[in-house]
Amino acid sequence: MKFQANSRRRAKEYEADVLARWKAEKTFEQSVENRSEDNTFVFYDGPPFITGVPHHGTLLSSIVKDAVPRYQTMLGKRVERRWGWDTHGLPAENFVEKKLGITSRHEVGEKISLAEYITTARESMVSNAALWENTIDRIGRWVEFKNAYKTMDKDFMESVWWAFKTLYEKGKIYEGERVLMYDTAWATPLSKSEVTMDNDAYKTVTDPSVFVKFWLKDFEDTEGSKDKTAMLAWTTTPWTLPANMGLFVNPEITYAKVKVGDEFFILAKDLLEKVFVDEKKQPVSFEIVNLIDGADLIGLSYEPLFEDSKYSGEGEENAYKVWGADYVSLESGTGIVHSAPAYGEEDFNFGKKYGIPVFHVLDEYGKYING
C-alpha cells in the first residue's frame, strides 16, 4: 500500500479512541473481576485534597501510581483501585473560610456558628470532583471513581480513631516536639505536603538581615588580651533572636579578631572584606588583631541578648555557648551562625543531640510572649 501524506491522525485522537474503547469494554473493571480474590495486591494511595485542582505535581505522581498496579495486574494479581478524597486539613479549611468570608479562627463561634462552619465545609467537599475525574481519565489512569471514599466519612474517621487508640494502648503514642512549618493566622502546624500541593504555595519575598553582636564572657585571645570582644553573627531571621540559645562556628575555619573603631569583633577571616562595607558598599577600615582557629572558640560563653528575658530552666548550663558545626560555611554571613532551636529544624535537631534547651518566645499566633 502506497503511503499517503497527511493520512495519520493526531496522537490525541488515537488516545481518545483508546479511552473510549476501555470504557465501552469495561477493560479496567474486567481486569479486576476476572482475577481471584485469593490473589490480591493491595495498593495504598494517599488521596488528594478535593478542594485543589490537578496540576503537574499531582498528575506526575498519579502516573507513577498507575504504573505499579498495572504491573501487578500483568502478573495476574487482583488489584482493586478505589479513589479517595482528603477532605480534612488546612487547604480544605482555607477553602471554606474564603467561602464564608472569615479571616480568623476566633470568628468561628463569634461571626458564624460552629454548626454552620461544619455544614458549609461538608457541602463544599464536592467542588472539583468532576474536574479530577475527567483529568485522571484523560491521562489514562485506571481507578474506580464511583465508589470514592472521603476522609470525612464517619466510618473512615472511626477507623482512624480506632487505629490511634490501638497504637496508644500499645505504648506507641508519645508527646514530643519538632519544628514544622506553621500558620500563625490559624494557629496550626502545616505538613510539607499541605504546602507543596498548592500551586500558590510559594512566592518571592525579601528577607531582612541583620548583623548581631554577641559579647563574650571573660574572653582571652591567643595573645593574652582580655579586650571586650563580640562574636559577630549574621541572620535572615531576626525575629528568632529573643530565642537565641547558641552560636555555631566551623572548627575547620580560621577566624579573626579585628578592631573596628573602638570595638573588637570575631568573624571568619575569609569574609572580612565582604562584611566590612557601608550602606554604599564602600570598604570600612578594620585592623586584624590576631587569628583564631574555629576549634578554639568552641565552649566559650557569651551574654544573652536580652538580659531581662533570658532563658532559665532545664539545660540552662548549655545555653549561650559556642558550638562546633561542620555545616557552617563561608558562602554568606560571617562564619558564625545564630541558633534558635525552637524555630529551626536543623538547630532543633542539633540542640536535641547536645542538650541545648528549646526556648519558646512566641504564642500560637506568632506574637511575642511578655517577659
Largest pleated sheet: 5 strands, mixed
Mean pLDDT: 89
How much helix is in the residues?
25-40%
CATH top-level class of the largest domain: Alpha Beta
Structural class: alpha/beta
CATH architecture of the largest domain: 3-Layer(aba) Sandwich
**CATH fold-type name of the largest domain:** Rossmann fold
The whole-angstrom Rg is 30 Å
Domains, number: 2
- Give the neighbour order of strands across the main sheet: 5-6-9-8-10
Shape: elongated
CATH superfamily of the largest domain: HUPs
Beta strand count: 12
Compressed to H and E, one letter per element, the order equals: HHHEHHHEHEEHEEEEEHEEEH
**Helix segment tally:** 10
Strand percentage lies at 15-25%
Query: Could you name the ranges where pLDDT drops below 50 across 5 or more consecutive residues?
Result: none
- First-last Cα distance: 89 Å
Characterise the protein shown here.
By secondary structure, this protein is α/β, with parallel strands linked by helices. The chain has two domains: 11-159, HUPs (Rossmann fold, 3-Layer(aba) Sandwich), CATH 3.40.50; 210-354, Valyl/Leucyl/Isoleucyl-tRNA synthetase, editing domain (Isoleucyl-tRNA Synthetase, domain 2, Alpha-Beta Complex). Helix content is 29%, strand content 17%. The chain is built from ten helices and twelve strands. Strands 5-6-9-8-10 form a five-stranded mixed beta sheet, with no helix packed on it. The protein has a three-stranded mixed beta sheet with strand order 11-7-12, with no helix packed on it. The protein has a two-stranded parallel sheet with strand order 1-2. β8 and β9 form a beta hairpin. α4 packs across α5. The protein is elongated.
